[in-house]
Amino acid sequence: MNKQIAQVVVGLPVDRSFDYKIDSPFLGNVSVGQRVIVPFQAKKMMGFVVGLKDTSPFAKLKSIINVLDAEPVISSTLLELAEEFSKYYCCSFGEAVETFLPRNLKKTKKPVEISVLEKEMVNAGKSSFLLICGQPLDKSWQKILNEVKNTVDKNQGVIILVPENSRIKSVVSQIKAHVKNEVVVLDKKLKGTDELKSWIRLKKAEASIVVGTRSCIFAPIYNLGLIVILEEDNFSYKQDQSPFYHARDVALMRSKIEKCSLIAFAEVPSVEMFFLAESKKEDLLNLYPKTNLSVQVVDISNYRPKKNSLVSIPLYYAIEKTLNERGKILLLMNKKGFSSYGVCAKCQHVLKCPRCDVHLTYLFHSKQVVCRHCHYSANRPEICPSCNSGYVNFSGQGIEKLESEVARIFPMARVSCYDSDTKKFNRNSNVLVATQAVLNLEAKPSFDLTAVVQIDSELNRLDYRAAHKTFSLLLHLKNLTKKQMIIQTRLSDNYCIQRLAKDDFLGFYEDELELRKEIECPPFVHMAEVLVRSLKQEDALAQADCLYQSFLDQNIKDIEILEPQPHMIARLRDQYRFAILIKGKNVEKIVKVIRQSFKDIKRKSSTIITVNIDP
Question: What are phi and psi of 296, to 5 degrees?
Answer without folding.
Answer: -110, 125
